[in-house]
Specification:
about 250 residues; alpha+beta; two-stranded antiparallel sheet
Length: about 250
């Protein structure tokens, strides 16, 4: 009985067809994956925005500061409101960490400059040594607006950045509390165009390869995409500085 077998040409034709179909489907699959990452990131942002509101309700209407008295960072202050969001599952001590944006791990290997030292913000915490251990907890996917308050500079510079109340913020739906970022805080001066401790700290390209958009959490609690805006005094005054009004 004669057995039917594929000829070499037929096999090559089948492989070529599969390759063509894969080439057509992969871009669509990548697009769907990126949209999923973005949706998950916005969901995390909404949770962090809710934590902001809850913190104010428990702390006399004050906005969650970037750094509180006692050197406690914002993710440590918000951890009690969402323990699962602000801790790593494999950490037995459940130390407070910056939540991880779902798209952030793809940026592993990105090199930034920190006090004249280069490092990757996504290096696993287990690889950090001695005093550098805090870097592994303070990188994760989001950075907090420095102007929400920082006790270090209150103490060192006579009230450089004060704690503020939610009711004292003009247009809280436009004031940014958190952004897609590589480090836990964003220090921005619109006059000198100096941002945080290194350039490019805001993750504009994480959800947009053209580096024109990132997700932000506003002080009214909502999270939404934010189109790229040059780091100018207008960006600083319109979206970063609180422009507080007197509160009673």
């Amino acid at each position: 009985m004669k057995k039917n077998r594929f000829t070499l040409i037929e096999l090559l034709v089948v492989i070529a067809i599969i390759a063509i179909l894969a080439g057509m489907l992969l871009p669509a699959l990548n697009s769907a994956r990126d949209k999923g990452y973005n949706a998950a990131c916005i969901n995390i942002g909404k949770q962090m925005g809710t934590c902001d509101i809850m913190y104010g309700a428990d702390n006399n209407d004050f906005v969650t500061p970037n750094r509180a008295i006692g050197n406690v960072l914002w993710h440590g202050l918000q951890q009690p409101y969402a323990p699962g969001l602000y801790s790593k599952k494999d950490d037995p001590n459940k130390r407070a960490v910056v939540p991880m944006c779902p798209a952030a791990p793809r940026e592993d290997g990105k090199i930034l400059t920190f006090y004249a030292t280069t490092y990757s913000p996504w290096t696993p915490i287990s690889k950090w040594q001695s005093t550098a251990n805090w870097l592994g907890r303070d990188c994760g996917g989001y950075g907090r607006n420095y102007y929400t308050g920082d006790s270090r500079y209150d103490q060192d510079h006579g009230g450089y950045t004060v704690f503020i109340k939610q009711s004292g913020v003009r247009a809280p739906s436009k004031k940014i509390g958190l952004m897609d970022a590589y480090y836990c805080d964003i220090m921005f001066n619109g006059n000198t165009k100096w941002e945080d401790r290194y350039q490019g700290q805001i993750a504009w390209s994480r959800h947009d390869k053209s580096a024109m958009r990132c997700n932000v959490v506003y002080l009214d609690g909502h999270c939404a995409p934010f189109n790229y805006m040059a780091r100018t005094a207008d960006f600083n005054n319109s979206h970063m500085k609180m422009n507080t009004i007197p509160t009673i």
